[in-house]
Amino acid sequence: MAKDIKKVVLAYSGGLDTSIILKWLQETYQCEVVTFTADLGQGEELESARKKAELMGIKDIRIEDLREEFVRDFVFPMFRANAVYEGVYLLGTSIARPLITKRLVEIAQEVDADAISHGATGKGNDQVRFELTANALDPSIKVIAPWREWNIQSRTQLIEYAEQHQIQVPKDKRGEAPFSVDANLLHTSSEGKVLEDPSEVAPKYVYQRTVAPEDAPNEPEIITIGFEKGDAASVNGVTSSSAALLTKLNELGGKHGVGRLDLVENRFVGMKSRGVYETPGGTVLLAAHRGIESITLDRGAAHLKDEIMPRYAELIYNGFWFAPEREMLQALIDKSQEFVTGQVTIKLYKGSVTVIARSSPMSLYSEDLVTFEEGSRSYDHHDAEGFIRLNGLRLKIYAARNKLAGLS
Length: 408
Description:
- This protein is α/β, with parallel strands linked by helices.
- It has three domains: 2-67 and 93-176, Rossmann fold, CATH 3.40.50; 181-297 and 339-359, Argininosuccinate synthetase, chain A, domain 2 (Alpha-Beta Complex); 370-404, no CATH class.
- 41% of the residues lie in helices and 19% in strands.
- It has 13 helices and 14 strands.
- It has helices at 16-29, 47-55, 67-80, 97-111, 126-137, 155-164, 171-174, 242-255, 280-296, 299-318, 324-336, 367-370, 383-404; strands at residues 7-11, 32-39, 61-65, 115-117, 142-144, 180-183, 188-191, 221-228, 231-235, 238-239, 260-266, 272-278, 342-349, 352-359.
- The strands form three sheets. A five-stranded parallel beta sheet has the order 3-2-1-4-5, sandwiched between helices.
- Strand 11 and strand 12 (272-278) form a beta hairpin.
- Helix 3 (67-80) crosses helix 8, helix 4 (97-111) crosses helix 5 and helix 10 (299-318) runs antiparallel to helix 11.
- The longest helix has 22 residues, at 383-404.
């Protein structure tokens, strides 16, 4: 098997784990390694990854800014669906994996590589997301998952391996990390170690992107978000790119302590895990999107969207972004967004996001119909009598049958 692999494209962060994986691939498979580092807005200096890869003899080093594609083609389509997993999680890690894998596969095809490799462990969801995406995009590509192949079982063994192979170990990596972090422009995800016991309150130092709500400004901030066909297009009247817009919402939401979530979730691989998430901009965006939909979506369309949303969110969480059923649901969702255009006014205050006004040139809201004042010519109150009688007919029949059977 190993001799069949001559070239591998590795998802490379430049951190200790993926640096060890890089060396392990070279040793185990005697293959050329191409490194790929994606800038998804994680807020790290990525050029250090290039220097580390160069020190390990890598000739083909890819570092790509994917922030705009990430928000425009993955985050925004997901938010058109108002997708939340298990009622609360905004899927920040889940939605990043298909894009990273897409580029891994594309680079592998460009350089005629035999395989791609990732650093996900054998217990997590990410291994599933990486590999299902690869299956969907290139069935012939091999996927190497070192954590399922090697005999390294602990952080101590990782450090020992690094020292044996002259891989630089930063001083802050020699101790046991208090928790692990995954970050991108949509969120930060913190898991493990000090967070593993769900009965223990998460330490304050876990939070990196938001201030504590109690420490947020004492005055609320009012902002407006403009939408065009379901996607956010402007903040406070300023139009910007998708990535810049989400960056601005992160800044505003984080400043007011918005978007914190402490969740015990059900992983696709079968276990429960506890994670602490910060999604300030996404939390604001979700509230605003539902606000503009409230006046632009027909009742039937809105309720159908809410019915399919849990299924859509589960598909993303489980790694099926490129599956036909997700694409079918996306077509339905995108159809619903044709008239979701307008402006939403939001109040941010000490961890809360409140829609306080909304308007749209495509609004279905009729002041004439809902007014309590005289003068509505579109609605006859007497029509309600027949409507209620017809809808109540089956309930009367049901009650009569129950009475006959002695059940009431």
